Amino acid sequence: MKEFNKIIGSNVRIERIKSGKNQMEIATMLGITFQQIQKYEKGINRISAASLGFVAKFLDKPISVFYDDPDASFIGASNEKKARASYKLVNELMKIDDEKTIHLLINLVRNLSGASE
Fold it and tell me: Average pLDDT of the chain?
């Protein structure tokens, strides 16, 4: 879980810097100290889903940007990597409006996993 916190924290830092914001601005918006932001960004402390949502809105970014791991390899993936992959899969699935397509994709994944209905 700590590796996952580091990925999220690192992505918060990257997006904060790209947005031209400093740690104090994020901290003030969340009502916490800038030291806490440092701990989030280093992955020492876990940022809550609610706080991450506020940060995403403050930086005008989709929340999914914080979950991206450019170094992820899904061959022999750990549970954390599978969780990130699941999150990405669900995000993409939510963009599909056609019920039949959704059903077909669920069946495809089910068949690939060897699970039965």
Answer: 84
